[in-house]
Every structure is written in C-alpha cells, then in structure tokens.
Amino acid sequence: MKNFFEPENVALIGISRKSGPGSLNLMERMIQFGFPGRIYPVNPNAKEILGKKAYSDVRDVGEKIDLAVISSPRETTIRILEDCVVAGIRAAIVVNQGFTDADRRGNELQQKMVEITKREGIRILGPNTLGVVNNFNSFTTSFLPVIKERAPVGLICQSGIHMVAPAQFCGEIGKGVDLGNACDVGFYDALKYFGEDPDIEIIVIHMEGLTQGKAFFALASRLAKEKPIVIHKSGSSEIGAKAAMSHTGSMAGDYQLLKTALKQAGVTFLEEAGQMPHAVKALRYLPLMKGNRVAVITYSGGAGIMLSDEVDKYGLKLASLSPETIRQVAELSPDWMPLGNPLDIWPALMLHSAQKAFSVALRAVLNDPNVDGVICIAIAPVPELSHLEVSELLNRVVGEFPPSKPVIVWTYGPNAREVRKRYESKQRIMTYPTLEITAWALSVLSHRFKIIKQGA
Amino acid sequence: MKNFFEPENVALIGISRKSGPGSLNLMERMIQFGFPGRIYPVNPNAKEILGKKAYSDVRDVGEKIDLAVISSPRETTIRILEDCVVAGIRAAIVVNQGFTDADRRGNELQQKMVEITKREGIRILGPNTLGVVNNFNSFTTSFLPVIKERAPVGLICQSGIHMVAPAQFCGEIGKGVDLGNACDVGFYDALKYFGEDPDIEIIVIHMEGLTQGKAFFALASRLAKEKPIVIHKSGSSEIGAKAAMSHTGSMAGDYQLLKTALKQAGVTFLEEAGQMPHAVKALRYLPLMKGNRVAVITYSGGAGIMLSDEVDKYGLKLASLSPETIRQVAELSPDWMPLGNPLDIWPALMLHSAQKAFSVALRAVLNDPNVDGVICIAIAPVPELSHLEVSELLNRVVGEFPPSKPVIVWTYGPNAREVRKRYESKQRIMTYPTLEITAWALSVLSHRFKIIKQGA
Predict the structure, then answer these.
(1) What's the alpha-carbon Rg for chain A, to the nearest Å?
(2) Going by fewer Cβ within 10 Å, which terminus of chain B is more open, N or C?
(3) In sequence order, which residues have a C-beta less than 8 Å from that of residue A218 and are 6 or more positions away?
C-alpha cells in the first residue's frame, strides 16, 4: 500500500487538457493539494498539460513510476494496465466507473483486470474510486476536493462521499482509501496498512461488501485491541443490499451474520452511518469509560428525564451517587429539594450561582467512586443570561482531574452551536447535538473499554 | 385558557425589586417582550418596581385582573391564591418549585392548591412552570428568554426547556404552555385551546405524565384528523419514569400502553425527543405523502445505498420508477449505466451537467405516477465546484409543480449548513441533517396521510 499512500513519482494516465473551475482536473487538484512528488501526465493528444510535458504513452516516461492513476474510458483500461506492467509500475488506481458496477461487458473487463493483477503482481485499487488521500504528505488522487487535516484517523470506504463529506460521514480524517469495486486491493490490505501506520490511531470503515474476508477477520480480531476499528455496513435492508450490488458490484452478504462476526472480532459496529463522526470524536478525545455508571448534572429537570431514557436505551445506568456527592449538592439546595441522579442543580443555582452549583456538582461526581462517566446539561444562553454560561468553568474543573472519566456536555438554547465550540476548546470536554447521541457516545466508550479488557 | 394566553391586566405577585442582567426578573422580561396590557407588581417590600407602582397586597389593586403570576416561596403560595380568589381573579400561574416535585410538605401544599381550585373555580397553571408564551400578542410569563416567532405551532410541555430551546426540542413555536406539575390546568385544557385556536395549525406535546386522560383521549381522537398532534413522551425507561416522578411529580404511567393508545387516537408519536423539530418542519411546510413509494435521486451511489436502508427502516419503499422516467435519465447516461432507484445521476452529470441531469431526473419523478415522495441527494460544494450546486434549479423545477409530493434534499459537504438554507428559501423543499432523519421525515408525512384518510 506504500505505493498508493506515499508515492514519489506518479503517472496520470488519460488526464484531460481542460483545467480550471468545473473541469474536475485531477492533476490540477493534485498540484493544488501540495503534492511534493513528480507528476507525469499521459495523454496522446497533448504536448503539455498544466506546464508539464505530456507523454503519449506511459512506457515513454523512462523514469521509475510508483503509482499510475488511470482515468480513461473503460474499453481502454486493460491495454493501459498492460502498458503499466511493461513500464514496471507496481501500483495503479482505476478511477472510472462502468465495470462490475455496470453491465455484463463491465464485468468481463473487471475480470480481465483481476487476471492482470494475479498474473503480473501489479496491485490495482478500484475501479470506480476516488483513490486515496494522505494529508500527512499532501497527496490525493481525488478529483473532488478533500479536506486537509492531519487527524490520526484512517478511513476505508467504498464510496467517494466519505472522503468528500467527512463532517457528515467520518469526522476528520488524516488518510483515506476508497476501495470502489475492490477488484484487487481490499479491506485486509487497507486495514493492515493503517494497523501498522504510526500516524493512525483510529480506523473507520464504511463497507458495502466485505472482500478478503478471512484475512480481514483474523487481522481485525488482533488489531481491535490496539486501535479502535469503527465500522458501518451498508445494506442492512434487502433494498439497500440490492443497491450496493449496482453501486460497487458488491455482494452485501448476510448483514446480521456479518454484524455478529464483526462485533465478536471487537470492532465498534454502528447501526447508523450518521453515527461515525460522533464515534470518532469520542474515541479520539475522551478517556474510555471503565464501567457503565453515568452521572447526569442538569440545569433542566425535563432534559434530565429525557436523557435518563437514552442512558437506559444504550445499556448504561444512572450511577447511585455516593452520600458525599449528594451532601455537597444538598448544602447548596433548598431543604425540600429531592436530590438524586439526574442531579438537578437549578434550585441550587437560583439560591447561589451557576458557577457555584456547577463546580461543586462536577467536582463531586468526578471524585465519586460510583461514577464512570459524566454528562452535563447546560444552557447556551443568549447574551443577557451570560451569567448562566459555564463553559470556561467546566473546562477548568475538568482540568483539575486526570483524564480518567469521560465528560460530555449537552447544551441547548439559541447559541448552542457556538457555545459547543467553547466547551471543546481544551479537548477535554466533548459535545453532541442531541441527548440521544450524548448517551450513545458514552456507550461507545464503555463498550471499547470492555473490548480492551477482554484482551488483557 | 383565554385568561392565560390573552390577558389584558396581569398581577405579578412576589416580583423582585432586582432587575437587569442576571436578575431573571419576570416583569422586566414581560415588558421587553412587548406585552401591550397592564402590569400590576405586588411586593410588600417595594413602593415601585421598574417605574410602576407596587402593591403590598393583590387585593389592593382595585382593577379587574385577568391573570396572577405568583413567584414566591412555597409556604406563602396558598395564602396568596386565597387572596387572588378574594380579588376576583380567575386564573393564576404558580411559578415556584417545591411541591409534588419535592417532599411530603410540598405534596400537602399542592393538595391544598387542588382544593382551592375545586372549591373556588380559580384555574391554576403549575406549580413548577415557566407558564405561557404567546407570540401572537407578545405575551410571556417565562422569566427565561423565549424566541419570538409567529409560527402556527402550539406547544404543550411539562418542562421549561421546551420553551427556552425550540431549536433542540420543538422547532419554531407560536404559542406554548408549560403545565409543570399540572395540579389543575392539564393536557385536555391546553389541547382544547389549541384545537380551537385559528392561529395554531400543529400541536406538539412533550409529556411527562398524562393528566385529564379520558377527556384528552376523546378530544385527541377527534382533533387529530383536523390538526396534526405530535407527541413525545418521557419515561420510556424505568429510570426515566422514576426521574419524571421527582421532576413534576408525574406518574409516568405504562409507556407502551400509552403509546399504543395515543397512536390509535391518530397522533404522530415520536420515539425520540430530538425528532420533534424535524416532524414540525415536515408537517408545516411539505405536502403529505399519499403512499409509501419514494424516489431517490443521487449524486452519490454510496449515499443512495445508505438511504435505501433508512427508507426500509421507516416502512417506506423505493418506488419502481416508470419506464418513461428511466428512459429520460438513460438518454443522458452512458450506455453501460444500470439505472433504477436510487437514480444515480453522477454519470449523466459527468457527460452533461449537474443542471441538466438534475432537472431531467427531478421533473421525471415528479411526473411519475409510481412516486409519492422524493429525496434528492446533492453536494453542497466548496466554491470551486459551484457548478455542482443546484439549489436554485431544484427550487425552480419544484415550483413548476403543484405541491402534491413532498421533496426533501439531503446535502453533504463542507458548506452543507449554508446550502440547506438556500434549498429551504422558497419553503417548497425542506432539508434534514442526516439521511436517517430524511427518510424518517417522509414516513411522518406518509403516516399523517393515513390518519386523515381513515377519517374520510
């Protein structure tokens, strides 16, 4: 995989002479992205592309090429791959669609690709792929723009959308590979690469149809204890599985069977594609949760109840707070206030201040041996209520403790989006958009702890 | 309920002399909110509050008072309510906590309130409530800021958070009432008021424990065919139900039983509190879906598959697109492209343009008799890909048709949030943050159509 992620010399075969806005010119994108290596454009109809000499045939380049990226009509692909073999190239990405994702002819052509890779040993990524992105060396083969961030997260997917829309699908990624139809390079290859990659701490996978299954499972079972592997599998429904077939020619396989096997291997299995960014955020920034006992500190009784339902839904428990925790908050509360978990600090806040009520309560639950993780429900107030905003305070209190219990804040009100950023600024507290996801994120951290413990 | 929502003269009993930032002074809030009626502050320790003569006793006011809002320590509440009766007041809001939400003494005091309301006929809202908000006449009794919007949505809740954080919990609301501990004014009263209110088209309810159950069910069954009633019930878990008990003293009741009964009555029942704003948006702006057949038009094969899973999960089907629809898109696509539903227009877009591919596909499915609702998956591109942005085009195409099929766009990429606003600008297309919610929102519209049809 090194040729794919860390090439020095790249041939772009079938690259267009058109560049500029709207052209989706891969070579232009690659230069803009800051690739420090050498690029050799190949196009028989051009003498020069973007200021670089163009070759009419990849065999004419005469330099050692680490990677060929092929964007050309499907009928020309097999010949080009054979040319690559002659030119001594050991790795190729086939960008175009129209293979097992298409008709019978496409199937035949992809079968020929498989034969070439088996016979000649050239590794092929794709077809039907955006290829790779590696933000650690500013390399990408995606003709659509991708975001540059050196996050310790490696993505393996079968659809370009995951590389193009990380906010919706993966969270921040540092490296990514789109397997597309996966005629050769498959899930095992990519997992192995990220498993050995010191830049990568979390591996996220969007799978349409598993390839290299046996080797993948053996590796995943071993690797899952070292690095979190988070997987969403498309095709949980019959219609989804059918759609996967016509997208990447993937056999979706039996979803339930695969889910069970993946969970047994120790991966974090997601029921929803949209959960991925939330899982990555929790695993990247928060400590694991060493049990299932959650303390909820809340400004709002109503929200505390709704969160209780979610805590239960995701297999967690409301902690039985220690008498010492209750005592400390009771000292600030009216005599009539029944205190428990959720720990409703609104009456204490009205008698004293938001700062006082929240700091006492948060310190108490962080010290409480009956608590494994904390969720705070706090208002993100309009400016006239700024005395109720406690993002700085909560960060200060959490900063007094070693990172041994995850702390999540759920905040509501017209400024929630903006205030969430303040909570996350120290990377000690994380936030989520809904109460449901807040509880779910803790369950990911609790589940992950169990996986690692089983290995000890 | 008219006294609560449309009072002319309001007495504020136990109002503080402190005002300004951080004081949470209800009188100040009420004036800022633009209440055009008359306010009579009552506080024995003040001669004047915020420039208005203060009375030491509500019986001294000497004017007809429509509504008394009582914010005072719990031990004083019963005496004040009795004073209100003497003063001829027929409606009172008890803001303070410390009743059935608290200890035995609180229970006794609330029982005395119940006796007063039964004996004297004065209607009591609360205790433990922010009271009401009515954006149509600029009236609120909430000491926390609420958003001013004349949305045709009426909210009934038992926790102030729903009024304070509409973005997270209800979407936009035009009127709202927080029943709190619901010692007297209950779910039936509020439902009846909104049912008869021409300003209100959608009724949303966040319930901890149902009160006035028999009358409520009879009315809801009748009303649900005229106005959508959307309900989330807290306490789906045992721990949530227990927490509800100590929040508003509510008996949560058997969740499953209540859910079944509410669904039979024809309400839109939500499993998740966070779904409410999405349901309100769909019901407010989109036409109902007259069947369960969804057409998916997509830029991304991968997203189309993920959406197929969600369509199935929420009881909808992928429409079997008519031969005419397929023919029109096939004309733009490469020969090898297998076309179906999801309708993947990426290859057509690459051969022609985003504008061409999307307008042909969208017109075709809107004309297709096999389609009841449409989801479009479109990129929200970075500026250099602006030729792929089709929000204006899609609005134009949808505008050519009468509003008979709901059209939802799900858009991805770094600018998704901003581009979503453009899609929604004509109020014909709505957007949602995840594929899951997108499919779910259509299922709400399909379910609502069935409710109405059953009534015909």
Answers:
(1) 26
(2) C
(3) none
- Measured between CB atoms, which of A206, A247, A436 is closest to B301? A247
Q: What's domain A147-285's superfamily in CATH?
A: Succinyl-CoA synthetase domains (3.40.50.261)
CATH 3.40.50.720 domain position(s) in chain B? 1-128
Domain at B287-455, CATH homologous superfamily: Succinyl-CoA synthetase domains (3.40.50.261)
Chain A residues in contact with B434 by the CB 8 A cut-off are: 168, 272-274
Closest CA to A394 of A367, A428, A418: A428
Closest approach of B249 to chain A, Cα-based (Å): 11
The mean pLDDT of B156-174, rounded to a whole number, is 92
Q: Does B209 touch chain A (CB under 8 A)?
A: no
pLDDT of the residue at A456 = 46
Nearest CA-CA partner of A332 in A295, A297, A357: A357
Nearest by CB to B165, which of A274, A312, A413? A413
Q: Which residues of chain A have pLDDT under 50?
A: 456
Q: Which residues on chain A are in Cβ contact (under 8 Å) with B273?
A: 306, 434-436
* Residue B180 contacts residue B248 (beta carbons within 8 Å): yes
Question: Where residue B456 falls among pLDDT bands split at 50, 70, 90?
Answer: very low
pLDDT digits (tens, 9 = 90+) for A27-72: 999 999 999 999 999 999 999 999 999 999 999 999 999 999 999 9
How high is the pLDDT of residue B455? 60
A325-353: per-residue pLDDT in tens? 999 999 999 999 999 999 999 999 999 99
Alpha-carbon distance of A412 to A409, in angstroms, equals 10
Report the distance separating Cα B327 and Cα B333, nearest Å: 10
Domain A1-126 CATH (choose: 3.40.50.720, 3.10.105.10, 3.40.190.10, 3.60.21.10): 3.40.50.720
Query: Could you say which residues from 8 to 47 on chain A have a Cβ atom under 8 Å away from some Cβ of chain B?
Result: 21-22, 24
Interface of B with A in 41-80 (CB under 8 A): 74
Q: Does B303 touch chain A (CB under 8 A)?
A: yes
Q: Which residues pair with A436 in a beta bridge?
A: none
Nearest CB to A340 within list B208, B246, B300: B246
Q: How far apart are CA A87 and CA A59, in angstroms?
A: 5
Asked if B87 and B57 touch (Cβ cutoff 8 Å), the reply is no
Q: Find the helix packing angle between A435-455 and A301-313, rounded to 10°.
A: 40
B277 with B168: CB under 8 angstroms? yes
Structure tokens at B102: 């608290």
Is A247 in contact with A98 (CB distance < 8 Å)? no
Question: Which 8-state DSSP code applies to residue A55?
Answer: B
Cα gap B205→B282, rounded to integer Å: 16
CATH 3.40.50.261 in chain B is located at 147-285, 287-455
Paired sense of beta strands B48-49 and B123-125, if any: unpaired
Interface confidence (ipTM) of the complex: 0.94
Inter-chain residue contact A165 with B412, CB threshold 8 Å: yes
Of A102, A165, A243, the CB nearest to B308: A243
Alpha-helical runs (H) found in B6-99: 26-32, 74-86
Whether domain B1-128 has CATH 1.20.970.10: the reply is: no
